[in-house]
Amino acid sequence: MKEIKTMRTEPAKLESKTRRLEIPKTNDQELGPLKLLPGKWANVPNLPGRGWNMIALPFVAPKDANFPFNYRLLVNQYNEELEFTLVDKAVPNRGVRLGLGPDANTDQFLVTLDYQQSIKQIAADDFPKSGLAGPAGAAIHHEPGLWLHMTNGITDGLNIARLATIPHGDSVLALGRSSEHSGAQSIPDISGLPIGVDQDLKNPYLAPYKHFNDNLFQGLFNPVSPNDLLEAANQGVEIEKTMVLDVDSTLPTGGIANIPFIVRQANATVMKSTFWIQELKEKDKYGKPKLRLQYSQLVMLDFFKRVDGLPPGCCPGLIQWPHVSINTMEKIVE
Predict the structure, then answer these.
(1) CB 277, CB 222: distance < 8 Å
(2) For residue 322, cis peptide bond before it (omega within 30 degrees of 0)
(3) For a pLDDT cut of 90, what percent of the chain falls above it?
(4) 60: Cβ contacts below 8 Å, ≥ 6 apart
(5) What pLDDT does 5 receive?
(6) How far apart are CA 5 and CA 3, in angstroms?
(7) What is the pTM of this model?
(8) From the CA atom positions of the chain, what is the Rg in Å?
(9) Which domains are present in the chain?
């Protein structure tokens, strides 16, 4: 696919821009920390079923089920396609500097990539059983969005941003920082347990989590510690270099906007995601390093009053439920 690109120019030449057709290339140094993303990433054929998802959802269990809670825990195994295309290497944000020495234009320029994410589940289960988990092959997520690299005018070291639009009725802006490292990077542990609840798995309120902790989904995935499978996927893999893209919607001036139903029922309030883009020692058919992408994404959903017995007013009043998605994919070589 050919994309139209705005050529980057020096500030003194802002009015002399030219445009030309360009095919997005991997390892284009002008893309900065996004340079390895253009193209398609996927689970198949070489890394099938490496996508995992967990989410707690409001749910009224059948009266005869005798569950002391009104939610279910849904887990999915999935395959994903994630495609990045170049939008522009110099999207201009116009600005001026006045009153501090000579007046001047202070335009900012952004490298911008479009992405399209599509996910189909391989298997799904929930507890308590709802009959709503869906069949194998069901399309369970579609997300268009943008990744930005701020090439100048950077504030507080925040040089990247991710904009995402989700069909449930959510729009996200998350800002963050990029960093490049030799070798592999360790995957941090995160907890899948809700905040605002006594987190002892013997607590009857956490019965859905205890169920999958004792009976790993597909014999592999534990929603109590969801990132374990990312670390396991790196065992025995020789990673030469890692580019890390880390974004967080709670950083100024990020945030999430939701439609009214979402706000009333299960309000998405926080999104944090980390991409680890890995160059492997193993080579592809053209003799270039094979590329892998791992990510961990955490979205906090707020619903139901806290049940941890803490005094009113000491903490946010609602339980925060982690919605975690992880995956390990590789770059498709055309």
Answers:
(1) no
(2) no
(3) 82
(4) 70
(5) 41
(6) 6
(7) 0.90
(8) 22
(9) 23-331 (2.40.128.20)
